[in-house]
Recover the amino acids of this structure.
């Protein structure tokens, strides 16, 4: 009985989005059909089609939702005027915090198939926005001497690989904080790792929270 009340409170449309995102991650966008989605939600296909015309419409809403909740993916990241280390820390922390707290599983979007990129070109653009922002922060940090300048291309690839892989860790098993993940990633690039503690403290103070 409690489960039924919980389902009603969430709403069918949201349950469809949650179930679809899980299936897209588990079997791929191409492998998840509307019948499987309806079964996962516990509804009939006609009920699913009342909310979404097809699987592509579900995917489009999931893509739009993920982009709309991330200034980074929109190309609207708020840069600090004086500290690229703070920028990189905030970027990683905010994205990690979102991934670990969202009820919709967006991991399928971070290793997209060519089919997904072709069907949702806005997601491809969003990923380019994110990559360009990270690259601009790293280059700026190198220019002002905060980040190491040797092998910057390798550093960028490592940052992307580690941050992307972190999206795929089982979220329900994580005991680390987004701050901890961001601080570790920052160690890849800073010249003086001892200064990371000050970056974390400044970020927390600007957010009005404890580090």
């Amino acid at each position: 009985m409690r489960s039924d009340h919980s389902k009603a409170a969430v709403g069918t449309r949201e349950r469809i989005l949650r179930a679809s995102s899980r299936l897209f991650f588990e079997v791929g966008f191409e492998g998840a059909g509307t019948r499987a989605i309806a079964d996962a939600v516990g509804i009939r296909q006609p009920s699913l089609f009342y909310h979404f015309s097809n699987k592509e419409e579900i995917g489009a809403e999931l893509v739009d939702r993920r982009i709309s909740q991330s200034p980074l993916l929109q190309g609207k990241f708020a840069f600090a005027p004086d500290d690229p280390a703070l920028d990189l820390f905030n970027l990683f922390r905010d994205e990690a915090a979102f991934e670990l707290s969202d009820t919709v599983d967006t991991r399928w979007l971070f290793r997209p198939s060519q089919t997904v990129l072709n069907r949702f070109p806005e997601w491809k653009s969003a990923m380019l926005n994110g990559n360009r922002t990270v690259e601009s922060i790293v280059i700026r940090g190198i220019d002002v001497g905060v980040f190491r300048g040797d092998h910057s291309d390798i550093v960028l690839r490592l940052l992307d690989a580690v941050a992307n892989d972190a999206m795929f860790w089982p979220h329900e098993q994580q005991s680390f904080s987004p701050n901890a993940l961001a601080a570790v990633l920052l160690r890849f690039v800073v010249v003086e790792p001892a200064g990371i503690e000050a970056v974390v403290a400044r970020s927390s103070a600007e957010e009005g929270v404890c580090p």
Summary: Residues 1-6 have pLDDT under 50 and may be disordered. DSSP finds twelve helices and no strands in the chain. The longest helix spans residues 121-143. The two ends are 41 Å apart (CA to CA).
